[in-house]
Design brief:
eight-stranded parallel β-barrel; 32% helix; binds D-xylitol-5-phosphate; alpha/beta; globular; TIM Barrel
């Protein structure tokens, strides 16, 4: 990967024990995550229901890591309001969920939170282009959103390269995240295509040694921060 960019790994607690979220957070921290990612789903935009604002607030209180919220909800503008002040540093919402994405970006920004846009696998990358000057991050889903443990869709690599090209041509500072299906056997290609941040969930909780799992990804990608397992 180009030396000007360094890989960050975001540990998503979605595949952790829903009845023991404190431990799930600790596992993500101990594994060496750079970010804790909270997937908030509403049972409407995606079929699953995960966490609400209290889990976001408490997670931000107990972890020293930066917390990112990934809204997988309809009417994200309502969720931006209800999550105000929870302590997250970045909030992503799906472009497919809002007809006035720029207004939602501005509402997040007004709270002092970094705005990001997530794109479902079938949403053309060009849809986010008008927003690139205003967002901190664009997250390309590598799977259908809502469920951990799926296989990365093959065409994700081309989508990452497409987005990287648009971001670089526009001289935008937005980072690129890939979320879903990230494992040691595809991380390197994703970063070569232009990803800055990889979200990992079953690669942490489905692994006997979560720290070794994240270390392996860092080693393969060639990132500098190999942490002790
Ligand atoms: C799914 C979530 C992902 C998911 C990733 O919509 O956004 O963060 O938990 O899980 P894995 O890493 O198992 O694909």
């Amino acid at each position: 990967m180009p030396s000007s960019r360094s890989l960050q790994l975001a540990g998503s607690i979605l595949a952790g024990d829903a009845l023991n979220l404190s431990n799930a957070i600790k596992i993500a921290e101990d594994a060496g995550s750079d970010i804790v990612s909270l997937d908030v789903s509403d049972g409407h935009f995606v079929p699953t229901i995960s966490f609400g604002e209290e889990v976001v607030r408490r997670t931000c209180e107990v972890t020293k890591l930066p917390v990112e919220v990934h809204l997988m909800v309809s009417r994200p503008e309502d969720w931006v309001v209800r999550m105000e002040g929870c302590g997250h540093f970045r909030m992503l919402f799906h472009i497919e969920a809002s007809r006035r994405a720029m207004g939602v970006v501005q509402a997040i920004d007004r709270q002092g939170v970094k705005p990001g846009i997530a794109l479902n696998p079938e949403t053309p990358v060009i849809a986010v282009e008008p927003l690139l000057p205003y967002v901190d991050n664009v997250c390309l889903m590598g799977i259908a959103p809502g469920f951990s443990g799926q296989r990365l869709l093959d065409y994700t690599f081309n989508r990452v390269a497409d987005l990287r090209g648009r971001i670089d041509r526009m001289r935008s500072s937005a980072t690129i995240t890939v979320d879903g299906g990230v494992k040691a056997d595809n991380a390197s290609r994703l970063v070569e295509a232009g990803a800055d941040i990889l979200v990992v969930s079953s690669g942490i909780y489905g692994h006997a040694n979560p720290a070794e799992s994240l270390n392996e990804i860092r080693r393969i990608v060639g990132g500098e921060s190999n942490k002790e397992s």
